[in-house]
Structure formats: structure tokens, C-alpha cells
Amino acid sequence: MKLKTLSTAILLATVPMTGVFAAALDRSGQSISAFLQPGNYFEAGISVLDPTVEGQEAGASATQRNISDMAGDYYFPSAALKFQPTSKFSFGILYDQPFGADAEYTGNNVFVSEASNTILAPTALAGIRQNTINTNFNALTAEQRVGATLQAQGVDLATPAGQLQFQGTLAAYNNDPATKSAIDAGVLNGVTQQVDAGLAQVNGLLGTGNTKVEVNTQNLSFIAGFQPTENWNIYAGPVYQTVKGDLSLRGQAYSIFNGYDADIKETSGVGWLAGLAFQIPDIALKASLTYRSEIDHDVNINENIPTLPALTLLPNGAAAAAGIAAASGETKITTPQSVNLDFQTGIMANTVAFANVRWVDWSSFSIRPYKFGLLSDAVGPLVQRPNGFNLVEYSDDQISATVGVGRKLSEQWAGNVSVGWDSGAGNPVSTLGPTEGYWNVGLGVQFSPAPNYFIAGGVKYFMLGDAKAQTGAQAGGNEYVANFEDNDAIAYGLKMGYRF
Q: Hey, what's the signal peptide range on this chain (predicted)?
């Protein structure tokens, strides 16, 4: 059997889930292998992931409770249609869902609201409480302290008798240390009760329920290719992308953001891709390098922040709360640029080796919703973030690689085995996706009832990297609120292809 024929068989046998559980929000791996198939070609596939991501409160958390599985199962489809009208020109449309998130915390932990939650971490709140008490008490004049004391005793200061008693008590306050001490103690107790009542009211603004996030994207890549010779393929085209999502932050881990909701209505943006492929069909050698640009989305996010009145605890906080409540503006979300390198070559009769390397620019990615950012600016100095902080950000770029071997077993059957690695996008990581890279092993099989169509399936087992999870307020530092270890995932894929 010629390797040229084997090349087609093995390429289609590869497991249809390049990314599935990659770093940050990466999902599909954004393969263009379907566009590089010979002749006219159509394929459709689906991948399903069943992860288990469990952990324990740690780091800055005051408790050490276990965190049950917070990663949701999900699936995503893909499809491709490619035409080869002449030997030198080809056109294709690829559909995939490149980025996404699906997570929900349950049980009793710092990511689920409880009655004991406070608007800020207990230590920070204790400091603000005492400072507010001292400030309010010290701002009272002697006349105000004496007047408040007499009013609390039922004295009517509007009457002549009341004014006479007021003047006598004021003189005693100014000249008798014992009287002064007694009145100050009573006034201080009253101020303390008022502050504590205000804090209880503020803490009552906190959200109920649990932290959860769902983000979905869709890509349509329109590709035109030029093949000057049998060996070379130069291709490029625009990419249309949509993004939508929902987010709820709950629990003590998010302090003043406990109760924050964000609804990202579906929005679209346009980017582009370009690449170069080289092949020598007789030895089943094929290599391609593909660049995808970043894509900007300007979004009006519907944000709900019920805890804004808590800003009154801070100097000039009332004005800041009113300003944030009335503010409106767009949020820019930029999905990252990436590069894919794919390679395969024949290594013996009926056998090819293949590899994929992917780089994604996650270190340049962040999301700071408009009102979220304004609130982070207001409270940032409390957590040593004077310029505010992002809802989500990543410290490192992602690099992933998959290598494997495919073999034709008969005229109708082919299979492959593979090993994959992903670097992750930094550690600590966001609480909304607390894993740090992975290792995986995969097995794929293809059945071809006729030479022009096939059914391929595969399974991969992922050993997920341990990660420390941090909130947006902690990002960029070493603080974290939970630790996730010894987690795994299993993925399944099914793909059907037809050449016409």
C-alpha cells in the first residue's frame, strides 16, 4: 500500500478532540486539518468531556473545608466543508467552539453564600469597624456627647429645665474626669451599636446561592487556499466569532463582590487566519503552520452589584457608590491570538507518526467588566491593588503538544494512540477554572465502510495538573483561597467524514 493512500486514512482516524480540556478557556484546539484534506470533503464531529475537579479551602481562607466537584460536563460540536474546484484553488468553511467555561460550586465552602458571610474578610472588616467607630466618636463635640447622653435619659432639651440640666452636665463633663469618663463610655457604646447595626445591614446585601460561570463561543472560519504546486498550500481568510456568557460570584472568597452577577449577551467580532502547508504525499509527509489573530468584542455587560451601599464604609464611599450605580460603558473582551503547528510523516509500511503543537497568548488576556472595574478601583487600595483588578486574567501563555502513531489495520479499519501535554496558563489560577495544564493519553479508531466515507471515534484520559485558585483581587500575587489536587477527566469524540 502506498503511503499516499495511508496518509488519508490515518489523518481521519485521529481523535476529534485536540483541546477539550486545555489551559484557561481553550477548548477545541482550532484545527484546520479538514481544510487540508484532498479533494472535496465534509466532516462533522462532537466531543464530550466529563471532568472531576475537587479541592479544599486553603491559603487565605479561614476554614479548610473540602470542595466537591465544581467542573460541569460539556460537549461541543465541529463541522467543516471544503471544495477543490481546481488543482490550484480551494475554499472551505470551518465551524468550531474554540473557547468556553462551565463550572458551578456547591456544598459548604468559600464559593457558596452562607449566613455568616461578611462584606469583607473578617480581619479587614474588623479594622474598618474600629476605624469607623473611632472616627465617628472623635467627631462628636462635648456638647453633642452631653446632649446625646441626656436625650438617651429622656431629658427634653427644648425646655428651660432641660437646658438648665444640659448646662450643668456640660460643666461637669468639662471639669470632672469621672463624669467625662462615664458620659464618653455611654456615647462610645451608642456609636458602636450604630456602626454594628450599619454593618449588619450592609452584610445583609450579600448574594445568596453559589458561584457559577458559563461561557460559550462560536467560530466560522472562511478559508481560501492557493496551491502553486502539489507540495505547497498557502491559505488565509476571515474568522467570524460570537461570545456569550453568564457569571455569578458568591461566598466569602469574593467579599464585596459576593452577589455580583454578569450577563454577557451574545456579541460578535471578526479576526483572520493565515497559514502555510507543505506535503510530500508519497511518503505521507504533511506539515502546516497556522496563525489566528486575536478578536475584539465590545460588549455591554448587564451587571448587578447589590453590595454597592457597602462603599459607605470607606472615605467618600457614598459618592463612589452613587457614581458606579449610575455609570454605563462597554467592556472589551479580546480572545487571544494563537499558532498551531501540525506535522505527520510515514515511518514504516502502513504506519505514520503525527504531532501537534499549539501556542495561545493567554498572558495578554483579561476581562474587567465595566462596573466591576469601577468597584475594584474603589476597594483596590484595601487589597494592595491601587489600580483595581480584573475579574479574570492569566499570567502565562499556553503551550500544548500531542504526539502519536497511527496505523492502518485493514482496508476498513485504522487506529492511533497518542500522548498529550499542556503547560497551563500560570499558577495560581482563576477560581473559575482551577486546573494547571495536564497530561493525557488517547486512543482512536476509524471504520471506513467505503473509500469515500468513514466514522471515527476516540477516548482520552486527562491527568489534570494541581492548582491553587485565587480571586481576581488576588491575581498577580501569591495569595490564594483554595487548592485543587489529583483531579482528572475523560473525553469522548465522534466524527464522520465524506469525500465527494
A: 1-22
Q: Residues near 160 by Cβ (< 8 Å), separated by ≥ 6?
A: none
Task: Write down the pLDDT at residue 10.
Answer: 43
DSSP helix/strand/coil, 14: coil
| Cα angle for residues 74, 82, 410 (degrees, 5° grid) | 75
> What's the pLDDT score for residue 3?
46
Give ranges for CATH 2.40.160.60 in the chain.
Answer: 3-107+209-499
In whole angstroms, give the CA distance from residue 353 to residue 351.
Answer: 7
- C-alpha distances in Å from residue 276, one per residue of 19, 279, 290, 344, 476: 21, 10, 7, 15, 37
Superfamily of domain 3-107+209-499: Outer membrane protein transport protein (OMPP1/FadL/TodX) (2.40.160.60)
| Amino acid 13: pLDDT | 41
CA-to-CA dists, residue 247 to 30, 54, 163, 391, 392, angstroms = 25, 20, 59, 10, 12
pTM of this prediction exceeds 0.85: yes
Say yes or no to pLDDT of 12 above 80. no
Cα→Cα distances 488→72, 315, 321, 430, 491, Å: 13, 47, 43, 18, 10
Largest CA distance in the chain: 116
For 47-61, what is each residue's pLDDT tens digit? 999 999 999 999 999
Contact, 299 vs 243, CB < 8 A? Answer: yes
- Tell me the C-alpha to C-alpha distance, in Å, between residue 158 and each of 155, 171, 172, 401: 9, 19, 20, 83
Residue 131 cell numbers, joined = 476605624
DSSP 142-164: HHHHHHHHHHHTT--TTSHHHHH
**375-405 pLDDT, tens per residue?**
999 998 888 888 999 999 999 999 999 999 9
